[in-house]
Design a protein that fits this description.
alpha/beta, two-stranded antiparallel sheet, Dna Topoisomerase Vi A Subunit, Chain: A, domain 2, 214 residues, single chain, 5-stranded mixed β-sheet, Helicase, Ruva Protein, domain 3, 8 helices
């Protein structure tokens, strides 16, 4: 086989640049060979301007976003780096209640429901000893500093109902309950093993309303 060609599982030859694009797209979550190939052909046929805009957006993504210094949500860069995101700055939010989520996707999934009016904290992951992810790899120290302020009275643990998510919730409960905080866990209506970002809005609302003490 020529070094400039690649054969997929169906032995169809592709030029090397096309193969590299397919492999890059396959690195995205939920994208297999067929979907990656379909997207690659779409980009090949798309107008040059569209592809260039996509390329620029991808390159600028990291530079165009910061993390909120308070909750770790993504936000546009601020001139004053200490300013938090728009959710944390909103005076109508209940600052005494903080919902802990694994990732930004889950934060926005809950926010779309429009029912939760407290604040958030993004862990940027969950405990997974098999993958070498311990407490130091998550934004737990930042959460602890928020709890030390004395402004938070209730901590809602909204990690996914997977083995890792449950372990993370249990760890946080044991860490923060001795501080006198009310610690609750969302549970109602969410099937075991399902990622929160894929749960519909109604189920999420019921889960928040039906949270239980830990």
């Amino acid at each position: 086989m020529s070094p400039n060609e690649y054969k997929d599982s169906r032995s169809t030859p592709y030029p090397l640049p096309f193969h590299r694009l397919i492999e890059s797209l396959r690195n995205l979550p939920g994208i297999g060979v067929k979907t990656a190939t379909k997207l690659a052909f779409h980009l090949l046929k798309a107008p040059v301007e569209e592809v260039c805009q996509l390329s620029q957006d991808l390159l600028q993504l990291r530079e165009a976003l910061d993390l909120c210094p308070q909750c770790q949500n993504i936000m546009e860069p601020m001139e004053e780096k200490s300013l938090p995101c728009s959710i944390c700055r909103n005076p109508s939010r209940d600052g005494a209640t903080v919902m802990v989520v694994e990732d930004v996707q889950t934060l926005y999934a809950i926010e779309r429901s429009g029912e939760f009016r407290g604040l958030y904290h993004v862990l940027m992951g969950r405990l997974s000893p098999l993958e070498g992810i311990g407490p130091d790899a998550l934004r737990i120290q930042e959460l602890a500093r928020r709890m030390d302020s004395g402004e938070v009275h209730e901590l809602i643990l909204a990690t996914s109902p997977t083995a890792e998510g449950e372990a993370t919730a249990l760890y946080l409960s044991r860490l923060f309950k001795p501080m006198g905080l009310k610690v609750s866990r969302i549970a109602f209506g969410i099937p075991i093993g399902l990622e929160l970002e894929f749960v519909d809005d109604i189920t999420l609302i019921r889960s928040v309303e039906g949270r239980r003490p830990m």
